[in-house]
Specification:
The complex is a heterodimer of chains A (261) and B (320).
Chain A (H helix, E strand, L loop, with lengths): L6 H18 L1 H21 L14 H5 L1 H25 L1 H6 L5 H29 L7 H30 L2 H16 L13 H9 L1 H15 L3 H29 L4
Chain B lengths: L5 E11 L5 E11 L3 E5 L6 H8 L7 E6 L2 E2 L4 H7 E4 L11 H11 L4 H14 L15 H13 L5 E5 L7 H18 L2 E6 L2 H7 L2 E6 L2 E6 L1 H7 L4 E6 L5 H8 L6 E2 L5 E4 L7 H10 L4 E7 L3 H9 L10
Parallel strand pairs in B: 3-8, 3-9, 6-7, 7-8
Antiparallel strand pairs in B: 1-2, 1-4, 4-5, 9-10, 11-13, 11-14, 12-13
Helix pairs in contact in B: 3-4, 4-5
Classes of the chains: A mainly alpha (261), B alpha/beta (320).
Amino acid sequence: MTRQTSLIEQVAAVARRSATGVLRQRALIIFPMLFPLILFAINGTSLSRVTELPGFPTHSYRAFLLAFPFVQGAMFVSISTGTSLARDVESGFLNRLALTPLRSEAMLFGQLGGAFVLGCVQAIVYLLVGLATGVTFVSGVGGVLVLLTLSLTISFAFASLGGLLALRLGTGEAIQGIFPLLFVTLFLSSATLPRNVIGTAWFREVATYNPVSYMVEGLRSLVIQGWNAQALELAFGLSLALAAVSLALARPAMRSRLART
Amino acid sequence: MPEPSIAIEVQELVREFRKGPRAVDGIDISVQTGEIYGFLGPNGAGKSTTVLVLTTLLPPTSGQASVGGYDIVRQSAQVRETIGAALQEAALDSILTGREHLMLQATLQGIPSRERKARAQELLERVGLTEAADRRVGGYSGGMKRRLDLALALIHRPRILFLDEPTTGLDPQSRAALWEEVSRLARDDGITVFLTTQYLEEADALADRIGIIDRGKIVAEGTPAQLKAEIGSPSVEVAPVDEQDTGTLAELLTRFGPPKRGARGSVTVQLPGGETELAEIVRLLDQHDVHVETLQLHQPSLDDVFLAKTGRKLEGAGAE
């Protein structure tokens, strides 16, 4: 005898599968995590003297730069989520699920389960690396908890974007192809330099309009400033907005992928 | 809802793709409950498209179809509850184990949590995957994947099962095991099976009735015996020990029909009266002291049926 499963039960089942997939593929966790750490190590050492620039908000460039791996890691989460979903489309696994009473919302949110696991692991590792390299958190223990929450929110937002791209493009290769564009948005943000210090006018202008700048600045504020409500509101707000827009656009795309007559 | 006597009813079904010919071009099918219906045709004939439409994964362009008594368009959710399907590619997650696949499918199909483990175990045993149950599917052979695919299709105890080329690419042993299980499902559990295949021997061995599809149209339908009988009688090929007896042999066999001479002095003749005429041939050869090296009875095959209906051999027809 079968019965209709609840939305929560469906989300949990899909999320368990997604999380299992991430945890069993160590390469999926280690390499995307290492790359931001390598950049953090290189830039943190080679650019340390930029703190001497007038108007630079802190004396520790590592403390300033710590937000960088968090956001870059979140971008990797988007690729991992997108690729995994695209693989389901390509392999026909989505067709298998379409033959069950699975709701499209459950598939979409459940797929983010793996992103949550990956986001958690990355955030904790980046935090520990930051602490190990002598970064102190001006906002204290409470700030660390908020930083982890914000980091997960940003990962969730980028994972939603990855899901949308997967459903729209339908192939893992296309997702991989888009990845460099995401990176460009990070390098054209205030990730490595504060906006007030960027000398090139067009770069400063782009960084000001680039939402990624505000995600980075929200995370950074907890490390070097303490409690900056405006920075946090912008970071949480923009991340949630990115997630909301991505999921809103992904929903009809998922419905069409889970097309049933 | 009481089980209808007709499990699958298709009328004038058409499926067109935007840039291509009609994949399914006005087909009519009627499958009785409990029957194994073999849907035979070469690659690209329209078999898989038909399955996708009947399993509600693809809307029809026109025509009507009901599965389990439910309309595939208006009552698609009820259709999906009624059916199980193993589609052409055994779409499995290589990272998950066989048991995890079954548990996921059981949850999504709404099997109560207290029953899921037992149901998964029952199916793993049935398809012979108990030992491999907790291994990742990425390490499974093609046959094991197909068996898991079948188990997944059966998890919610469907009344109708769609199997799209379930044995393509399998070794003979795996193929035989799957045939046995499909036969058992129809025989013991009363499940209606709609099976697509490009293998003649598979359709012949498994199906109660066969529909032959080519270029989107059904070109023949009936039981294997009916289809073979439709295109003619069996033939006998006789090869004499001494090739010099070929002339006598041909003359003797003329009374059954025009003889055709073959390699190494053999002579073939159609038997309009069926295989019962074989005894008479043997008697005749004995009376005239013609010593025979081989005597072979050839029944018409489904390939002969396909050839007669389409003018092409089934093997390689899809590549055209």
